[in-house]
Amino acid sequence: MATKSNLFAYLMALLSILLVWQVASLFVPGFLFPAPAQVLPQLPAAAAHWSFWEAVSVSLLQLLAGFATAVVLVGVLLWPTLTFLPFRRYVAAFTGILQAIPPVALIPLLVLLLGFGGAPVLVVVAVAAFFPMSLSMIGAIDHLNRLHLDAVRVLGATQRQMLRRVVIPEMLPALLSGAQAGFGNAWRSLIAAQMVLGVSEGLGGSIQRASQVGDMTTVLLDVTVIAVLAAGLNVWLFEGLKRRYLSWRTA
User: Fold this and answer.
1) Where is the ABC transmembrane type-1 domain (predicted)?
2) pLDDT > 90: percent of the chain
3) Cα–Cα distance between 165 and 178 in angstroms, integer?
4) What's this model's pTM, rounded to 2 decimal places?
5) Do 175 and 102 form a contact (C-beta atoms < 8 A)?
6) Torsions phi, psi for 228 (to 5 deg)
7) Is 65 a residue whose pLDDT tops 60?
């Protein structure tokens, strides 16, 4: 039931976006802002070309690699942040300072350090995904029920048992929400980084090339593909994880 409800919600959201797009296109010349009826029929022709799938696959690989790196970093920080209060305060301050800096602002520095190509994009994506997850982790730790931790500690639970039986289950809702927010940040930063770097690969590169020649149909087609991919990954990954591990909250 939850899956059908979520799919229906995403379908309605996509339809409402298409409606707003259609209405807005009535007030702007077609060569500047094509209507959905002009853009969407171009998808089969675009999908028949290998460069379309190359752009999609490159973007997805960079997105998933950067996001996975951020997840690993948060996982490594979890236990010391949970058990050592000064370190938790340090991570909170570190995150609070650096989260205000747009990850794409780091690109000039990353290009000097790593050169052009996919490496700076991957770092930008990882940084964009890391901060929302880090903040969610700290918030979840602050709201942990200390009575539960003390109880299992008195009963002789090991560090692994505490994590598995108490800490992770209590923190999981906040961690998943933070991961979902980080994933959205990662998408935005990925496309921005590909456009800023001027790389020829990825959906961001495709948007940049199309915009340089005023091909707004391709620009909007790529934006539509990004929206559909983001919605699909949200439903498949995050809603799937919530359905599997948090179903007890709505039962």
Assistant:
1) 48-237
2) 48
3) 21
4) 0.85
5) no
6) -70, -40
7) yes
